[in-house]
Design brief:
Low-confidence stretches: none
Oligomer: single chain
Length: about 170
């Protein structure tokens, strides 16, 4: 069915002359303008330009006025060093926030428990890097709990838990 349709389209194109591309490469000649009756030709012709007169005296350009100095940028407002940045996260209801906080704390405790099963001296260098990553995630999760960023704390604690679990299960 498709072959017949494609064959029909190809035949139609070849018979209509669209298939030839010689005219694409030939230099184009400007199209001849249709001749107008003498009355219309006079109306359509542009008005004659006057002959050039004596050159006008050149006027020197006026010097530009100096640009005003740019306005000073407003000074940034001082931010106390101990103020944490604002947290952008969806608003949770109080029960949901308590539940998520408890789950984050469980993940932190579980990751710490798994890390106690690991002997850092027996780990390969890649596994030691994973151990440092787990400890970094745990530190950041605890900090997030202190700053009331419960969702971030849970995500970090979950990552730490999964990496610690992988360290315990991976053969050494």
């Amino acid at each position: 069915m498709r072959v017949a349709l494609l064959a029909t389209v190809a035949i139609c194109l070849s018979l209509s002359g669209c298939a030839t591309i010689k005219h694409w490469f030939a230099p184009s000649t400007p199209a001849a303008e249709p001749e107008l009756p003498p009355e219309r030709a006079r109306r359509a012709a542009p008005p004659p330009t006057p002959p050039p007169s004596t050159p006008a005296r050149a006027v020197p350009p006026r010097p530009a006025a100096p640009a005003p100095p740019p306005a000073p940028a407003p000074a940034p407002l001082p931010v106390p060093a101990d103020t944490p940045p604002p947290v952008l996260s969806p608003v949770l209801s109080a029960p949901d926030e308590q539940k998520l906080r408890a789950e984050a704390q469980q993940r932190i405790d579980g990751a710490e428990q798994r890390l106690r099963q690991v002997d850092p001296a027996k780990l390969a260098s890649v596994q030691q890097d994973s151990l440092q990553t787990v400890q970094s995630f745990l530190d950041k999760a605890r900090e997030a709990l202190r700053t009331q960023d419960v969702q971030r704390a849970f995500i970090l604690a979950d990552k730490a838990y999964l990496l610690a679990d992988d360290l315990v299960r991976r053969p050494r």
